[in-house]
Write the C-alpha cells for this entry.
Amino acid sequence: MSRFVLSALLLISFFNMNAQEPTVAQDAVSESRTHFELKSQDGFADFTCTLVERVSEKLLSTRVLLQDPLGERFLISSVHDFEHQTATREIREIGGSDFLRYTMFLPYSAKTMSATRAEAHAHPELLHDSNTKFELSAAGNSSISGIASFWKDPPTALQWRSRARLMLSAEFLNSLEFLETVGIFRDQSIPDMDSIVMPLVLYRTECRLDVHLMKTALPPDCGFDSKFGVDCSDKQKETATKFNAERPPRAKAY
C-alpha cells in the first residue's frame, strides 16, 4: 500500500491506539503524564520529553513536550475531535511562530468516541473513503487542501510537497530534518508523524535509520512542563512533589 494513503493511516492509528481505552463518562476528562528521556547510545541525540494524554468522549489528545539537545522546544500532538470529526497531527516550535499541521476531515456523523467506534465497525468502508478531505497548514495562513487519496498520484505528490516545503522557514525545515534523521518521528513514544505527515514535506523518510533511541523513565517535572505552557494541575503538582521526595525519586505517571 502506498505511504500516501493518509486517510487509512490516520483512522487505523486512531483505532489501534484506542482499542484498549476504557469507556469514559460523557463529560469526564482523564489526563495522565509521563516524563522520560530519549537518548542514542553515543549520546549525540539526547531529548527530554513529557507525554500528556487526555481522553474524553468528545476529544482524544496525545501531546509530547520535547526538548532537543540544544534546548530548542517542540510540541508534537495528535488530536481526534469527535464532536467535529477531525483528526489532526501537528508539530509546533515553542517560542516561535513555526508549525506544521495536518488535518483530516473524517467521514463520520457520530459526535462521541463510543459512537464513532460503533459507526466505524458498522461501516468499515469509511476507513478507506477515497473522498476524505485534508488540509496541510503552516505559519502565515499558508495551506494546501484537497482530497487525501490524491497523494497516491506521484506528480501531484511531488507538486504538493514542493509547495509545502516553501510554506516552512528554512530553520524550521532544518529542525524537522534533524528530528527525522535521529529517529524522533519513528519512536513509539511519539504520535505517528513519520508515516503520516513527514513524507509530505521531507524526502528520504523511508530510508533505514542507524540511530536507535533508548527510553528512560524520569521522575515527574512540572517545571519542565510549564516551559511549554502546559501547566500541571494542583493534584499533579502534589503527586510530582510526593514522587520526587522519595529516595531515589520515583519515575511514575502523574
About this structure: The helical segments are 6-17, 113-122, 154-166, 170-181, 222-226, 234-245.
